[in-house]
Design brief:
GTP-bd_ribosome_bio_YsxC, binds guanosine-5'-diphosphate, Probable GTP-binding protein EngB, 7-stranded mixed beta sheet, alpha/beta, 5 helices, GTP binding, 195 residues, Rossmann fold
């Protein structure tokens, strides 16, 4: 899959604000500051279409992008930011549950984790939540450039084990800095949307 075009569609909180066209959709999720915006910008070849967060946990809307006029990327707000209030956390939870359980054209979720550390409790909960609803997941372990190559394999194994990854889900080594894993991730997305 080569991305030649991307445009911002809309931001949404409630289902009636989601785009109504029935295009295949890929959601991208991860804890705040994991590198989600950087990964999205890298995939779509744009410097700043997904805003690199200066204030983690601030964006509390789902942002929809139309890619190649045929696929939608849904940038869902980051989780696991310790400093947000209980109220914001609860409204986030409600918004996410509604989105992940009701979005019929959702094909797969790209869950982004930091390769350097074992997946956090929040990462584990998110993955288990997606599996509970039988949503296919592609795990992208990012910031690989921050680790020596000799450690990649071991860290990937930890990600797989801690998340208790389903064998049907893919695990991709990624770096927004070096663009490593970009083609592999795009190929995986393409295969899942069947285009
Ligand atoms: P978000 O909150 O998940 O959207 O995270 P951002 O994309 O804003 O990234 C958080 C910080 O990590 C920023 O300072 C990025 O420059 C940095 N970052 C993101 N991805 C990578 C990566 O692959 N390698 C390195 N070295 N830094 C990264």
């Amino acid at each position: 899959m080569k991305i030649t075009q991307v445009e911002f569609m809309t931001s949404a909180v409630l289902p009636d604000q989601y785009p109504t066209e029935n295009r295949p959709e890929i959601a991208l999720s991860g804890r705040s500051n994991v590198g989600k915006s950087s990964l999205i910008n890298c995939l779509v070849n744009r410097k700043n279409i997904a805003r690199i967060s200066s204030k983690p946990g601030k964006t509390q809307t789902i942002n929809f992008f139309l890619v190649n006029e045929s696929v939608v990327f849904a940038d869902v707000p980051g989780y696991g930011f310790a400093k947000v209030s209980k109220k914001i956390r609860e409204s986030w939870g409600k918004m996410m549950e509604t989105y992940f359980t009701k979005r019929e054209n959702l094909v797969s979720v790209v869950q982004i984790v930091d390769l350097r550390h074992p997946p956090s409790k929040d990462d584990q909960n998110m993955y288990q939540f997606l599996k509970h609803y039988q949503i296919p997941v592609i795990v992208a372990a990012t910031k690989a450039d921050k680790l020596p190559k000799s450690k990649w394999h071991k860290h990937l194994k930890v990600v797989k084990e801690v998340l208790q990854m389903d064998s049907s889900d893919a695990l991709i080594l990624f770096s927004a800095e070096t663009k490593m894993g970009k083609e592999e991730l795009l190929a995986e997305i393409q295969q899942r949307i069947g285009q």
